[in-house]
Design brief:
By secondary structure, the chain is of the alpha/beta class. It has 3 domains: 98 residues, Urease, subunit C, domain 1; 309 residues, TIM Barrel; 108 residues, no CATH class. The protein contains 18 helices and 23 strands. The strands form 5 sheets. A 7-stranded mixed β-sheet has the order 3-2-7-20-21-22-23, with no helix packed on it. Strand 13, helix 8 and strand 14 form a beta-alpha-beta unit. Helix 6 runs parallel beside helix 7, helix 8 packs parallel to helix 9 and helix 16 runs antiparallel to helix 17.
């Protein structure tokens, strides 16, 4: 009998394909899976009896916002204890690298509502230096990165609200190529966020071609997830076709009641594009509410020039009046209006990183306005005025949760064979429950309780499909030569416990999480070991 470092015995294996579960030992040598073998062929220095449990590849969070949190809290328990063993940062076109030293303060302020604040100075500029900072932090799970479109645009042309020149576009392409050589998996854009929202389709196609040179992924928060959803999907299809790039739709949804019916037409259009051979995929979180920066309630022109100019506009009665008028308008808007989708009762303040006004965290904007005015009732205009005051006082550093989606649409999207799972989890304040519960929710609520997916389908979406989408060849599978990232769960008990009212609750039924061949979380001993076995995963090391 051969001796190896770790053997998982007696469990039912879901290997990340759509294959039904089967019984075998998972044999691990150091940080790799050596083989999947019949019982009794190997003994391990450490052995785990998985009788009554399922063994799956470690889950992959393809849309994460732990970019700064991983440096200050590298154990990331809210992610690890869901079974997540790899996160992909650099999302929505706005993140932390590359960045010039002179732009760090502006970028830090702009990102506070999304990523929180780091408790020390940023000590990197390039993508490679940021990935090295992650490695030094010794995270509990693997981390990968996308170069943000906004960072490349800021380097090439600042925060200007205009089309890029040919020279500026070429400079952005060069920044993307450099980041890909340094390890980025692809590029992300956020077409409702500045400065990404100032780009046209021609710019995106040009940048997509630079990504395609490395067989990377072009990831997009689309230009619209509501009134112009169909047009936004058409833009993604055009980029995929003309750039020859893998095109991936972030947190796929249909927001706003009046837009829910459009989802069938959208899904049919994507299916036709995929039948043409275009590589179009998407990810999704399994909830009817989203979460982002409260500044997203403002019309795009309000962000031009960066944070200081936005604050100046908020301080101008005339400019503020224009913002409020556009926010409160009931007709179809020219931009994705969170206010129109959700209203002040459907927008909840999730985080104020400064520590001020903590009585408002967890309250919707109407409730917070009532607290602020010490009033029993407030008008929609009062709530809008309060929101603008809060953004001004907090220098845009506020997070929100917005309710705008349909459970029926969530499940329709979930069942598409090209849609994998993500958390899109903001971690500060009173976060969206998806930061703590997404993956167990897929296994417990959507597979076991609702039967929306077979168990092997859910695991496939959370592992193998995600790895294939992002060209991660050593992740998301249980086979010889794969990285030994694994999750062991109880199929009868696994469930999310995080709610919108009490979101910082860990899931149940995730029994073991293994990263790089070492047990990082052991529920039976109630221990998160903090071995720090996570890697900064680079494109050429996938």
């Amino acid at each position: 009998m051969k001796t190896v470092t770790l053997v998982l015995k007696n469990g039912a294996i879901l290997d990340g394909t759509l294959r039904a579960p089967f019984y075998a030992d998972v044999v691990i040598s150091h940080d790799l899976i050596l083989t999947v073998d019949g019982p009794g062929g190997y003994s391990g220095i450490e052995e785990i009896d998985c009788k009554g449990l399922f063994i799956a590849p470690g889950f992959i969070d393809t849309h994460s916002h732990s970019d700064l949190r991983v440096l200050s809290e590298p154990m990331l328990p809210m992610k690890l204890r869901q079974g997540i063993t790899l996160e992909i940062f650099g999302q929505d076109g706005i993140s932390v690298a590359p960045v010039r030293a002179a732009d760090r303060a502006q970028m830090s302020s702009q990102l506070a509502g999304l990523l929180g604040r780091l408790d020390r100075e940023w000590d990197w500029q390039s993508v490679s230096e940021y990935l090295e900072a992650i490695s030094r932090a010794r995270p509990s799970l693997d981390c990968a990165y996308l170069i943000p479109h906004g960072a490349a645009r800021l380097l090439a042309m600042g925060m200007e609200d205009r089309r890029a020149t040919e020279k500026e576009t070429a400079a952005m392409q060069d920044h993307i190529r450099q980041a890909m050589r340094e390890g980025a998996l692809g590029m992300s854009t956020g077409l409702i966020y500045p400065p990404c929202c100032y780009s046209d389709t021609a710019e995106l196609i040009a940048l997509g071609r630079a990504v395609a040179e490395f067989d990377g992924v072009f990831v997009s928060h689309m230009r619209s997830e509501s009134d112009y959803l169909e047009d936004a999907v058409e833009e993604m299809i055009e980029i995929a076709r003309r750039a020859g790039v893998r095109a991936h739709i972030s947190h796929f949804k249909a927001a706003g009641r009046e837009n829910w019916a459009s989802i069938d037409r959208v899904l049919e259009r994507i299916e036709r594009a995929r039948a043409e051979g275009l590589r179009i995929t998407a990810d999704q979180y399994p909830y009817i509410a989203g979460s982002t920066m409260l500044g997203a309630i403002l019309p795009p022109w309000a962000h031009a020039g960066g944070t200081e100019e936005t604050l100046a506009r908020l301080g101008s009665p005339e400019e503020r009046g224009r913002m409020k008028e556009m926010m409160l308008a009931k007709e179809r808007s020219s931009w994705d209006s969170f206010w129109k989708w959700s209203g002040p009762e459907g927008i909840v303040i999730s985080d104020i990183p400064s520590g001020r006004r903590q009585e408002c965290v967890g309250k919707n904007l109407s409730e917070a306005a009532r607290i602020n005015l010490d009033a029993e009732r407030v008008s929609e205009e009062d709530a809008a005025e309060f929101a603008l005051d809060l953004l001004f006082e907090e220098r845009m550093g506020v997070g929100m949760i917005s309710f705008s989606q349909s459970e029926d649409v969530v499940q329709k999207i979930m069942k598409q064979p090209y849609v994998n799972v993500c958390t899109d989890g903001l971690l500060g304040g009173k976060p969206h429950p998806r930061a703590y519960g997404t993956y167990p929710r897929m296994l417990g609520r959507y597979s076991r309780e609702l039967g929306a997916l077979k168990l092997e389908e859910a695991v496939h979406k959370m592992s193998r499909l995600a790895a294939e989408t992002f060209n991660l060849k050593r992740h998301g599978r249980i086979e010889g030569g794969a990285r030994a990232n694994l999750v062991v769960f109880d199929p009868e008990r696994v469930i999310d416990r995080a709610t919108f009212e009490d979101s910082r609750q860990y899931a149940e039924g995730i029994e073991y999480v293994i990263v790089g061949g070492k047990v990082e979380y052991d529920a039976r001993r109630r221990a998160q070991h903090g071995m720090g076995r996570g890697l900064a995963v680079k494109r050429d090391q996938t």
